[in-house]
Amino acid sequence: MAEIATEIIGTAGVITLDKPETLNALTQDMVRVIADAIEKWRDDTSVRHVIIRASGGRAFSAGGDIRNLYVRGRSHYDATLEFFAEEYRLNVAIREYSKPYIALIDGIVMGGGVGVSVNGRYRVGTENIRFAMPEVGIGFFPDVGGTWFLPRFPGKYGHYCALTGARLKQDEAMATGVLTHTIAADGLAALFEALTETEDAAACLAERCGGSSTASSLPSQEAIDTCFNEKTVEGILRRLEATTGEHRDFCAATATTLRSKSPTSLKIALRQMQVGEKAAFRDCMKAEYRIVSRVLKGEDFYEGVRATIVDKDNAPQWRPSLLEDISTDDIDVYFAAPETGDLTFP
């Protein structure tokens, strides 16, 4: 396929995302190619590890093919839901892969791109990385494993990222665990070459990359931990808007950001963080499949994509438009098993 390539180079199975005109947005065909490749390489003794990288320079992958999902979601519901099922199964396959799976991330990594990188064993990011899970801004939710990895960020930083779509740079990505290693962009080609020649990916990464960072690299951590420790979105907003002192401006800006997002998506995302804190990865993926099976039948996702990607008026009309009009029971429905059954795994 022109948009993705898989090959064996030396000791590595190499996956290259090659659709720079769409910022390497993942399509169903690309998901299938990746899934087939890693399954084929699982028992191939010549492949010591897998590398996933991207061409184009600006983005590793900016997410899924949202415009296509917007067009097909209502008219081809079953087929669209199957895309998510295949994507989520791929996320599980990557998380559980028996060989080292290494993502080389240079540029934007969001949504579906996060799913095929952050779920792997090693994540190497350059100074150009911009990580985000911005789905609540289009009436969706932080999926592709976000239910599992976001609650495992230090303190409540994952809650903050899930509800605001905040973008993380290299230091923040290391501090949260999005990255396991860092490297300068101009050293990425040499690292790739070395990885295709080594039998020991872990040793190669340790020798050539940086790999230390602490939660102290995270700005406004104290305010985030205090405000996002609330059990409801309404409570988080009250905390943010009542904050005074040195964090006042940050908290006020964060509250404004929250109020621009889909109220339903905000409540779903917060519930995800609460569910995911103690859940196993597969159970998190089952929860995400439950959620998406209902989001695709709703209104906010299509309205959010219309406003931000199609018409670009940036004025979505959320339904409901007020947090207080969404009850706990309303959100419970998104986390209940679909009539067609839960997501299954091979």
Can you characterise this structure?
- This protein has a domain at about 5-130 and about 170-215: 2-enoyl-CoA Hydratase, Chain A, domain 1 (Alpha-Beta Complex).
- The model has no long low-confidence stretch (mean pLDDT about 95).
- α13 runs antiparallel to α14.
- The two termini are about 25 Å apart.
- The protein is an alpha/beta fold and about 350 residues long.
- The protein is globular.
- The chain has helices at about 30-40, 65-70, 75-95, 110-115, 145-150, 155-165, 170-175, 190-195, 200-210, 220-225, 235-240, 250-260, 265-275, 280-295, 300-310, 330-335; strands at about 5-10, 10-15, 50-55, 60, 100-105, 110, 120-125, 130, 180.
- Helix content is about 45%, strand content about 10%.
- β1 and β2 form a beta hairpin.
Explain briefly what this protein structure is.
The chain is of the alpha/beta class and 346 residues long. It contains 16 helices and 9 strands. Strand 1 (4-9) and strand 2 form a beta hairpin.
Overview features:
single chain, 346 residues, alpha/beta, 2-enoyl-CoA Hydratase, Chain A, domain 1, six-stranded mixed sheet, three-stranded parallel sheet, 11% strand
